[in-house]
Amino acid sequence: MMGASITLPASIWKKLNVIWSLFFITVGFVNLYVMYNFPTEDWVNFKTFGVPGLMVIFIVLQMVFLYKYIPEPEK
pTM higher than 0.85, yes or no? Predict the structure, then answer.
């Protein structure tokens, strides 16, 4: 989806794909852990506030990673 917005080497696209995949797999396992080991109310709070918070943090970290590949504006 970002291919039209930013030009990156193929190796960086592969790294991003792997990182996103690992992020979602990890969040899925954490979700299962919370679901089976905590009360339903805690699980709902995790799904409502924890997962979106983790996503925001992850996106900010991705932006930091991609910052060096964003071209400088021409003056």
Answer: no
